[in-house]
Each structure stands twice: as structure tokens, then as C-alpha cells.
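HTH-type transcriptional regulator / antitoxin HigA structure dump, as promised
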Amino acid sequence: MTVVTVHPIRTEADYEAALRQIETLMTAPAGSPEGETLDVLVTLVQAYEARHHAIEAPDPIALLEHLMEARGLGRRDLEPALGPSGRVSEVLNRRRRLSLDMIRALHDQFDLPAEVLIREYPLAAPERAHGS
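C-alpha cells r here:
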């Protein structure tokens, strides 16, 4: 049995050391002293990451683009939630905001987080008519 000393994670070096320790303990049986150490280290790393490596949630359109890429979906797959193909294009091209009904449908159909879908995001600048 290897005894691992657990220390607070205050610096990036501490963080890297904790990650290395976690890697060596990944196969530790649950409930064993090593498994308990692993649980403590994971909790410390998660707390450090939340403070120092937080990733901001994407804007709603970036989330939809990621959904399409990750699941191999096309624009047509969004039509049940967003409406006809023209409306899907307007939303994805940032010419139209998501409506509350669209947000609900996307949340229900694709299990997307509503808290991301309701975020503000920039729209594309309106196109100017030629000759204006």
C-alpha cells in the first residue's frame, strides 16, 4: 500500500502534482485508503479548476453549432425546434434571436441546457440595401 500525502492546491505546480497523483490512483478500489485519497484529490482538483480554469458557457448559437457537429446533424434536424429552413438559417446566421418557444423545443428535443440557450448573444449587423 502506497501512502499518499494530500496537500491543498494553491499553485499551478500543486495542481499538476495532484493530477499526477490522481493518475497513479485511478485503479484504486473504492473504499480502500488509496480510493479514499483519490476521492479527496479529485475534490481538491475540481475546486481548483472551478476557481482557476473555469470555462465560460458558449453562446446559444455556438452551442447549436457544436450540437450539430458532435451529433452529425444538419440544419434540417433543427427544423422541428426552430421552424422552417428559412428560420433555421436566420437563427444560425445570427439574423434572428431564439424565441422562448424555440428555446423550450431545443431543450426538450436535444436536452440542451436552458441556462445557455437563454443567454444574450450578438446578432449579425443588418445588411444594407444597395444604393443607399
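The longest helix spans residues 33-52.
lmk if u need the other ones
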